[in-house]
Design goal:
Elements: H1 13-17, E1 31-34, E2 37-40, H2 48-58, E3 62-64, H3 71-86, E4 93-95, H4 103-117, E5 118-119, H5 125-131, E6 138-142, H6 152-156, E7 162-164, E8 168-172, H7 181-185, E9 191-195, E10 201-205, E11 207-210, E12 217-220, H8 230-234
Helix pairs in contact: 2-3, 2-5
């Protein structure tokens, strides 16, 4: 993938929505802030994900915005407040733009605000999930009837949302990026990632046992300790892979 710098307007939305933080050589836009109010600039579009970072990282709760001049921002602000209310958080309010008597005074006020409080938020989905720990963006489903506990999904998950231990399998949807790599590597189709919101960690009980065929240690679901390991299930007559 290549970023076309001639067409990029620098809005930074891709930085906040990319599930695996793969965008490089691009910075999040700096915005002016004063007394907990976001002052803009509003000429470029914005994402709910960026505003959530301003909410969590800098405790911003208002924006000085004329919704008739910048309807795109107004729509994004409405979507932000819906998500904040659902999470039990304080919604943002619309603050009246500066009522300076002249454009010179307006420019002076904005310049003062920018000099004293021009900030950037940390971009990236990982940073947003770390700061915004209210609900997840995805739901992880593991079909225990299909799952052979091979652990491939846990090894491929760079975010650590799926963890296999000696006594449990832990699914933490708060860390899931939605990349669906776990779905791609699962040999039996036991993993499914869907859009949704959860705020709990799922812990599934497993036990450490030995494969009755190859005698190698393996994890097993309760009541299925006598079943062969995933490799022996794939290779009959005891001819498992080396």
């Amino acid at each position: 993938m290549r970023l076309d710098e001639q067409r990029c307007v620098g809005c930074g939305i891709c930085l906040f929505v990319c599930p695996c933080d793969a965008i490089e050589n691009l910075s999040a836009p700096a915005r002016a802030v004063r007394d907990g109010v976001l002052l803009g600039p509003f000429t470029l579009p914005v994402s709910v994900e960026e505003l959530l970072m301003w909410h969590a990282q800098h405790q911003i709760r208002a924006v000085a915005l004329d919704p008739f001049r910048f309807p795109g921002w107004a729509v994004t602000l409405a979507a932000l407040n819906l998500q904040l209310r659902k999470a039990g958080q304080t919604p943002w309010r619309l603050a009246a733009p500066s009522e300076a008597a002249s454009q010179r005074e307006r420019r002076r006020w904005l310049r003062l605000a920018e000099e004293n409080a021009t900030l950037s938020v940390t971009a990236g989905s990982r940073a947003r999930r770390r700061l915004w720990r209210v609900t997840s963006e995805y739901v992880i489903a593991l079909n225990q009837k299909k799952c052979t506990l091979c652990g491939a999904c846990g090894r491929i998950c760079s975010a650590g949302a799926m963890h296999f231990a000696e006594s449990e399998v832990r699914l933490n949807a708060m860390d899931c990026t939605g990349c669906r790599g776990c779905e791609a590597v699962c040999p039996v189709g036991a993993v499914a990632i869907t859009r949704g919101e959860v705020n709990s960690i799922i812990q599934l009980t497993v036990s450490e046992t030995a494969c009755p065929v190859c005698k190698q240690p393996r994890l097993s679901w309760p009541g299925k300790e006598g079943q062969p390991c995933p490799l022996c299930l794939r290779h009959h007559h005891g001819m498992r892979e080396a």
